[in-house]
Design brief:
Helix content of chain B: 55-70%
Structural class of chain B: mainly alpha
Structural class of chain A: mainly alpha
Order of helices and strands of chain A: HHH
Number of strands of chain B: 2
CATH topology of the largest domain in chain B: Cytochrome C Oxidase, Chain A
Number of helices of chain A: 3
Oligomer: heterotrimer
Largest sheet of chain A: none
Chains: A mainly alpha (83), B mainly alpha (610), C alpha+beta (255)
Shape of chain A: flat
Distance between the termini of chain B: 43 Å
CATH superfamily of the largest domain in chain B: Cytochrome c oxidase-like, subunit I domain
Order of helices and strands of chain B: HHHHHHHHHHHHHHHHHHHHEE
Number of strands of chain A: 0
C-alpha cells in the first residue's frame, strides 16, 4: 500500500475534490454558454477527466490494476480446463 | 423478548431521526420561503433511515469506531436472536435476506391474485368496492416493485451471500459490515412500500415515468425513496461480491477452477455495481422535481424539460438489471445440472465468456424499451441490432446446459426438475423476446399483455424457478435437515404446469390487442382473461406443497449429511450447516470442481474430507 | 451419428414440420383484423418470427425431454457419467447457426419491416389529424393541409374517430404541456406512438378496408401508456368509411 502519511493522503483527497468542483463549474458554464458539437466535445472531455480522477483517487483502481488484468485474463483464458 | 431489543432500538432511533430530519427540512424551507410539503418526508426519511441502522446495531458494532469510541464484537453464536440485529456473519445475513424476501414474495403474490380477480372480467368491479385506500394501479405497482426487489436480491443477497464464500473456500465476504448494512436497509424499503396506500397510493407502475410520477399522490414519493434505498443495497452488495471473488479465493483456486455459479454472481455483481447509480439518479431527479420544483421532465414555461430523458436514464439501469436477475439463475442451472447429471459443465470456457458478453451487451440495448416512445428515429435500427445480438451468448448458455445433461446419469431429484424447468421456460421467454426486439412487431406488442407474458416467462420462469431450485439444492446445507423429496417433486411439477398454463395463455390477449396496466377492458376479451385468472389461482395453490414442506422439514426433517448430492464444490466439503468460521481448515484447491467420472481430478484437499 | 442423436434429430424434424404446417394453415387466425397496410407488414413479421423461432424451440424441448427420459439413472447407481470430451465442432456449429439466424432476423423482418413502415414518411397524407392527449380524453383536429387550419374538432370518450378508406392518414400527436405521458394506439392499424408533453410525434396509417368498432373491437384508439386512474377507459371508437361518405361527414361536422 502507500508509504505516505495521513496528512499527505488527506491533502491529495482535498486537491481532487477541489479540482472536481472547479471542473463542475466549467461544465456548467459550457452547458449554458456553448452549443452544438463544441459543447458536446467540451462536456465529454470534462466528463472523462472527472471520471478518471474519481476512478484513480476515490476508487483506487490503479492500486488493484494487477488484480483486474488477472481477472480479465481469467475470463478470456480460464487456464485449467481440458478443452 | 430482549432478543428483539435491537429492533426496538432501531424503531425508536428511527422516530428520533425522522423528527430531526423533518426539523432540518422545516428550517431550510422556511429560510428559503417555500412551503415545506414533501421535503419533510424526504429529509425525515433520511434521518429515520440513519436512526434505524444505528439502532439495530450498526452503531455499536461499526459507527462508534468513526468517533474513536469502543465497539462491541459479537461472537455471532446462539439461536434466533442473532437474526434480529446487525450481524456480520454472511450466513446470518443470507438467511435474513431469504426470510424477508420470502415474506415480500408471498405478499406480492397475494396482490397478484387480487389483480387476477379484478381482471377475470372486463368491468372494473372488485376495486370499486374496496374504496379509496386501495386502487388497482397502486396494487399493480406494488406487485411490480416488490417482485422486482425479490428477483434482484434473492439469488445474490440471499443465496450467494450464504453459499459463495463457502464455494470459494473463504471464511466470510470481503466486507462483512457492509454486508450487514446492505441487508438492514431492506426492511425500511418494505415498510415504505407498504405505507404507500396510506399516502394516496402510487399509480405509476414500478417504472414511475414522469410527468405522472412528479404530479401524482405522495405515495409515489415513498416509492421513489424506497427504490433509491434499495439501489444503495444493490450497489454495496455488488461491490462486496466483486471484492470477495477477486481477493478471497482459497489457495489453489485459479480462475480456471472457479465454479460456474461464482462466475455468474461475479458477472451480476459487476452490473449491480455499475448500473444502479443511473436509476438512483433518475429517481433523485423526480424527487427534486416534487420537493423543490425543478423541471427536468416538465416542458412547461418554455424551460424545455423532456419526459424522454427519464425513460433513457431509467432503462439504462433497468435493462442490465434483468441480467442481474438472470445470470445467477443461469449459473445455478449449470451447477445443478452438472451435479445431478454426474458430468462436467460442458464448454465451461465458452460459458464464462458468454456471461461477460451478456454483461457487456446488456449495457447497450436499453432503448428497446423506448421504440414507441417518440425518441429519435435514428436510434431504432442500432438498438434493434444490438438487442437481437444478446440472443447469441444466451444461446451458448443453452448449448452448455443441454450438452451437460446429454448422456449424463440423471438423478431426477427436485433441484434438477427445477433446473430443467428453467431451461424450458426461458426458451419460450427468450424467443418471445425476439418479437419485442424486432421493431415492426414491437410497435404492436409494446404495452400489451404479450410483454407481460414475456417478462413473466423470463423472470418467473427463469429466476423464480431458480430461487426454488436453490432452496431445494441448498436446504440440506443451510438447515442441516433434508426436505421431503416427494413433496418437492409434486411442487415442481405442479408449479411448472400451472405457470405455463397461466402465462402461455396470457400471450393471446396480448396479440389480440389488450393493453397492460388496465383494470377494465373490452368485454370480448373476458373469456380468455377469465381463463388466465383461473390458471393463476391454480398456480398460487401450487405453492402450498412447498410451504408445507418448508415448515415440516424444518421441524421434523431427517438430519442431512454433509454432502447429500455428492457434489464436488467446496460448500459441500464442510458440515451441514457449516460452523461459524465455515471451515475447520481452509481447503487447498487442486483441480476443477467438475471432476465427475475422472478420479484424477480432485477439486480440493483438506485434512478432514476430500 | 449415434442412435440417440439420430432419434432426437428425427423427432426434432418431425415436430418442426408439424408445427410449421400448423402455422402455415392457421397463422393468419392469430391476428386481429388487419385494418391498414401497415398491419400486413407487422403481421407478416410476427408470422415469420414464429416460423423461425419454432425450430429453435423444438430443438431445446426435444433434446431436453429425450435426455430426461433416456439418460435417467437408477436409484442405486452411484457411478458418475463418462465425461464427454468437448466436441469443438458441436459448439462452433451452434455458435455459427445461432449467429446466422440472429443476423437473418435482424435483416428480415427487422430492417425490411422497418423500412416498409417508414416508406410513407415523405408522402403527403390524404388526411392530417392533430391528436392531443389530456387526462383522460383524446382531442382530434382534422387539419386542412392548405390553410393549416383545423376543419373539424372532436373530443371526449363518446366521439368516434372517422377516417376514409384507402387513404394515407398522418397523425401528429402530442399531450398538453401540463399533462402526463400518453400513448396513441389503434390495434387494428398496428400503429402506436407515445404522446409526449412538449413535443410532437408522428404516425402514418394507410387504411385498406371499411370497418368499425361494432365489427371488431380492435378498431379503437387506446391509450397505451399508464397515465393515472382512468387510463383503462381512455379510448375512442374508430370508424373507417368510404371516401365520399367521409367528405360528407367532414362537411356535416365543420366547426
Amino acid at each position: 500500500m502507500s508509504t505516505q502519511s495521513i496528512g499527505q493522503l488527506l491533502r491529495v483527497g482535498w486537491v481532487v475534490i477541489i479540482a472536481l468542483f472547479i471542473l463542475t463549474i466549467i461544465e456548467f458554464v459550457a452547458a449554458i454558454g456553448l452549443s452544438g458539437i463544441l459543447q458536446l466535445a467540451v462536456l465529454s472531455i470534462l466528463a472523462v477527466i472527472k471520471g478518471t480522477l474519481i476512478v484513480q483517487y476515490f476508487m483506487h483502481v490503479g492500486q488493484i490494476r494487477k488484480s483486474i488484468t488477472d481477472l480479465w485474463w481469467g475470463i478470456l483464458v480460464p487456464s485449467e480446463v481440458e478443452e | 423478548m430482549n432478543g428483539l431489543l435491537p429492533i426496538g432500538k432501531g424503531l425508536v432511533f428511527a422516530a428520533i431521526g425522522f423528527i430531526l430530519g423533518a426539523a432540518i427540512s422545516l428550517g431550510l424551507t422556511t429560510l428559503a420561503g417555500h412551503p415545506a410539503g414533501e421535503s419533510l418526508i424526504t429529509l425525515g426519511y433520511v434521518g429515520a433511515l440513519i436512526g434505524w441502522l444505528m439502532g439495530v446495531g450498526m452503531w455499536r458494532t461499526w459507527g462508534a469506531e468513526w468517533f474513536g469510541l469502543p465497539t462491541v464484537v459479537h461472537d455471532n453464536s446462539g439461536g434466533w436472536k442473532r437474526y434480529f440485529r446487525f450481524n456480520t456473519d454472511h450466513k446470518v445475513v443470507g438467511i435474513q435476506y431469504l426470510l424477508t424476501l420470502l415474506v415480500v414474495f408471498l405478499l406480492a403474490g397475494a396482490l397478484a391474485v387480487l389483480m387476477r380477480i379484478e381482471l377475470a372480467t372486463g368491468a372494473q368491479d372488485v376495486f370499486n368496492k374496496l374504496g379509496g385506500i386501495t386502487d388497482y394501479n397502486t396494487i399493480m405497482s406494488l406487485h411490480g416493485i416488490m417482485m422486482i426487489a425479490v428477483a434482484v436480491a434473492t439469488l445474490i443477497g440471499g443465496f450467494a451471500n450464504y453459499v459463495l464464500p463457502l464455494m470459494i473456500g473463504a471464511r466470510d465476504v470481503a466486507f462483512p459490515r457492509i454486508n450487514g448494512l446492505s441487508y438492514w436497509v431492506v426492511p425500511p424499503v418494505a415498510v415504505l412500500l407498504l405505507l404507500t396506500p396510506i399516502f394516496g397510493g402510487f399509480d405509476t407502475g414500478w417504472t414511475a415515468y414522469p410527468p405522472l410520477a412528479s404530479k401524482t399522490a405522495t405515495g409515489a414519493l415513498l416509492f421513489e425513496l424506497a427504490f433509491l434505498t434499495f439501489g444503495v443495497s444493490s450497489i454495496l452488495g455488488g461491490l462486496n461480491f466483486i471484492a470477495t471473488v477477486v481477493f478471497l479465493r482459497a489457495p489453489g483456486m485459479t480462475w480456471g477452477r472457479v465454479p460456474v455459479f461464482v462466475w455468474s454472481v461475479l458477472a451480476a455483481a459487476v452490473i449491480a455495481l455499475i448500473a444502479t447509480q443511473w436509476v438512483a439518479y433518475g429517481l433523485l431527479m423526480i424527487i427534486l422535481e416534487r420537493v423543490i420544483g425543478m423541471h427536468f421532465f416538465n416542458p412547461v414555461d418554455g424551460v424545455g424539460g423532456n419526459a424522454l430523458l427519464y425513460e433513457h436514464i431509467f432503462w439504462f439501469y433497468s435493462h442490465p438489471a434483468v441480467y442481474i436477475m438472470v445470470l445467477p439463475a443461469f449459473g445455478l442451472l449449470l451447477e445443478i445440472m452438472s451435479t445431478f447429471a454426474r458430468k462436467p459443465v460442458f464448454a465451461y470456457k465458452w460459458v464464462v465468456r458468454a456471461f461477460f458478453a451478456i454483461v457487456g451487451l446488456s449495457f447497450i440495448v436499453w432503448a428497446h424499451h423506448l421504440f414507441t416512445s417518440g425518441m429519435g428515429e435514428w436510434l431504432h435500427g442500432p438498438f434493434m441490432i444490438l438487442t437481437e445480438l444478446i440472443s447469441i451468448p444466451t444461446g451458448i448458455v443453452f448449448l452448455a446446459a443441454v450438452s451437460t445433461i446429454w448422456r449424463g446419469k440423471l438423478r431426477l431429484k427436485t433441484p434438477l426438475l427445477f433446473a430443467v424447468a428453467i431451461l424450458l421456460n426461458f426458451t419460450i421467454g427468450g424467443l418471445t423476446g425476439i418479437f419485442l426486439a424486432d421493431i415492426p412487431t414491437d410497435i404492436q406488442l409494446q404495452d400489451t399483455y404479450f410483454v407481460v407474458a414475456h417478462f413473466h416467462y423470463t423472470i418467473v420462469g427463469g429466476e423464480v424457478f431458480a430461487i426454488f431450485a436453490a432452496i431445494y439444492y441448498w436446504f440440506p446445507k443451510i438447515t442441516g435437515k433434508m426436505y421431503n423429496e416427494t413433496l418437492g417433486k409434486i411442487h415442481a411439477v405442479l408449479m411448472f404446469l400451472t405457470f405455463n398454463l397461466t402465462f402461455m395463455t396470457m400471450f393471446m390477449p396480448g396479440s389480440d390487442g389488450m393493453n397492460r396496466r388496465v383494470s377494465s377492458y373490452p368485454d370480448q376479451l373476458s373469456d380468455i382473461n377469465g381463463l388466465v385468472s383461473i390458471f393463476g389461482y391454480l398456480m398460487a395453490l401450487s405453492f402450498l406443497p412447498f410451504l408445507w414442506n418448508l415448515v415440516d422439514s424444518l421441524i421434523r426433517g431427517r438430519k442431512a449429511p454433509d454432502n447429500p448430492w455428492e457434489a464436488k464444490t467446496l460448500e459441500w466439503q464442510t458440515s451441514s450447516p457449516p460452523e461459524i468460521e465455515n471451515f475447520e481448515t481452509i481447503p487447498t484447491v487442486t483441480g476443477i470442481p467438475y471432476g465427475y467420472g475422472n478420479p484424477d481430478i480432485q477439486h480440493s484437499k483438506t485434512n478432514t474430507n476430500g | 451419428m449415434n442412435k440417440d442423436t439420430l432419434i432426437v434429430t428425427l423427432i426434432w424434424i418431425f415436430g418442426t414440420v408439424v408445427g410449421e404446417v400448423i402455422l402455415f394453415m392457421y397463422g393468419d387466425h392469430m391476428f386481429p383484423v388487419q385494418g391498414s397496410t401497415q398491419a400486413l407488414v407487422v403481421d407478416h413479421a410476427f408470422l415469420l418470427l414464429s416460423q423461425l423461432g419454432l425450430p429453435v424451440f423444438m430443438l431445446i424441448i426435444t433434446a431436453t425431454a429425450y435426455a430426461l427420459v433416456r439418460f435417467r439413472s437408477n436409484d442405486d447407481d452411484t457411478k458418475d457419467a463418462k465425461p464427454v470430451s468437448f466436441h469443438k465442432g458441436w459448439a462452433w456449429s451452434w455458435l455459427i447457426w445461432s449467429t446466422a439466424l440472429c443476423l437473418l432476423v435482424i435483416v428480415v423482418p427487422g430492417y425490411t419491416g422497418l423500412l416498409e413502415l417508414r416508406s410513407t414518411a415523405n408522402t403527403t397524407p390524404d388526411v392530417l389529424i392533430e391528436v392531443t392527449g389530456q387526462r383522460w380524453i383524446w382531442t382530434y383536429e382534422y387539419i386542412d393541409q392548405e390553410t393549416h387550419e383545423p376543419i373539424v374538432k372532436i373530443r371526449g370518450g363518446d366521439a368516434t374517430l372517422v377516417l376514409p378508406n384507402e387513404s394515407l392518414i398522418r397523425f401528429k400527436i402530442t399531450a398538453v404541456d401540463e399533462d402526463v405521458l400518453h400513448s396513441f394506439w389503434i390495434p387494428a392499424f398496428r400503429v402506436k406512438i407515445d404522446a409526449v408533453p412538449g413535443l410532437y410525434t408522428s404516425l402514418d396509417a394507410t387504411t385498406n378496408r371499411i370497418g368499425g368498432y361494432e365489427e371488431d373491437i380492435n378498431y379503437r384508439v387506446q391509450c397505451a401508456e399508464l397515465c393515472g386512474v382512468e387510463h383503462s377507459t381512455m379510448m375512442n371508437k374508430v370508424e373507417v368509411i368510404g371516401k365520399s361518405e367521409f367528405e360528407k361527414w367532414i362537411t356535416e361536422n365543420k366547426k
